[in-house]
Amino acid sequence: MLLRELTVTNFKNIPSAALEFSGKVNGLLGNNGVGKSNLLDAIYCLSFCKSFTGVNDRMLIRRGEEFAIVRGRYSRKDIDEELVMGLADGRRKSLRRGGKEYQRFSSHIGSFPLVMMAPQDIDLIRESGEERRRWMDMVISQSDPSYLKHLISYNKALEQRNRLLRQGCVDPLLYEATEVVMEVSGTFVHARRAEWVEELTKLFSRYYNAISGGDEEVRLTYVSHLDDPGQTLKSLLDGARRHDEIVRHTSVGIHRDDISMDLDGMPMRRTGSQGQCKTFVIALRLAQYDFLRSSTGMKPLLLLDDIFDKLDASRVERIMTLVTADDFGQIFVTDTNRTHLDEIMSRTGGDYRLWSVDNGTFATL
């Protein structure tokens, strides 16, 4: 899959931009805060219908303006496609594919696969399990529409159960109605997550060793209340009912799942250096790319946002070698250091484009 052209109007700090991309490497060069990451976020929005940064839609509209538009022209499975996302103050966000508007954004997820690496990725290690669950759900949903349906179903039932708890309800029949849905969908999500973590771990270890030089042992472990084969979500919810009535929220279930991330048998969040943590999350993203390429039958777009900071020269070299190989497709990379971009582009055989970025404007170099 390729993104051929991108047109942006009033998106974040970008007043207007129209770019035609190389099929391999596209570099954005400029100081921090000038709009490089914002352009990547516009591309991200076309795949996920939301910002990578998690800000609300109003914050995506340029200050002083009332609307924003992002239009992308793609080549997807040898077919030309167009996506248009529209944002307007006080109105519902819209996404059109080939001129037809989506009624549910969830039906779009996975159609235009994308992997983004950014400085915020360190949160996968440092922050709570919520961050890692969000990552699991985002990746698996791109490859399996059934997973997203079950996840949405589970979360709706979970909110209904929490509402009953907050209201002080003691009617077991009302709880049973929500818990049946939670068990069916939660069991599906748990099984799929377990399969995914096992599959991703093999890919992740290979990429980590390729970047680090192979001197360290890394491990991912899926952690869930449903890890006991004899345990069911229904029995867990039944057993926790009295406790949940006191605390007024659901304390057990797949919404509490996590991934343990270890380096040489120790928790990465406690023992990893800045360089090791950076290598860890980059390897996670490359493994994610490999997984999506295999599961979707397409090479996802790869967005690299200022990823070389705090990495030694040897690790930078190994990453460049990996991402410019034939296994990877179209790449978008930002940096404040032209040396990194020139080194990446020197490996492409001339198939690259480079822009300088300043205050939301883009000039071809």
Global outline? globular
Low-confidence stretches: none
Strand percent estimate: 15-25%
Rg for CA atoms: 22 Å
Counted by DSSP, the helix tally is 10
Largest sheet, in brief, is: 6 strands, antiparallel
Instruction: Quote the average pLDDT.
Output: 91
The helix/strand order is EEEHEEEEEHHHHEHEEHHEHEHEE
Question: Which percent range fits the helix content?
Answer: 40-55%
Query: Could you give the order of strands across the largest sheet?
Result: 2-1-4-5-6-7
**Total count of strands:** 15
* Structural class designation: alpha/beta
Q: How far do the termini sit from each other?
A: 25 Å
How would you describe this protein?
The protein has 10 helices and 15 strands. Helix content is 43%, strand content 24%. Strands 2-1-4-5-6-7 form a 6-stranded antiparallel sheet, with helices on one face. A 6-stranded mixed sheet has the order 8-12-13-3-14-15, sandwiched between helices. The protein has a 3-stranded antiparallel sheet with strand order 9-10-11. It is an alpha/beta fold and 365 residues long.
Helices and strands in order:
Elements: E1 2-11, E2 14-20, E3 25-29, H1 36-48, E4 67-76, E5 79-88, E6 94-97, E7 100-101, E8 114-117, H2 123-126, H3 129-143, H4 145-166, H5 172-212, E9 218-223, H6 233-247, E10 258-263, E11 266-267, H7 268-271, H8 274-296, E12 301-305, H9 313-323, E13 331-335, H10 338-345, E14 352-358, E15 361-364
Parallel strand pairs: 3-13, 3-14, 8-12, 12-13
Antiparallel strand pairs: 1-2, 1-4, 4-5, 5-6, 6-7, 9-10, 10-11, 14-15
Helix pairs in contact: 3-4, 4-5, 5-8
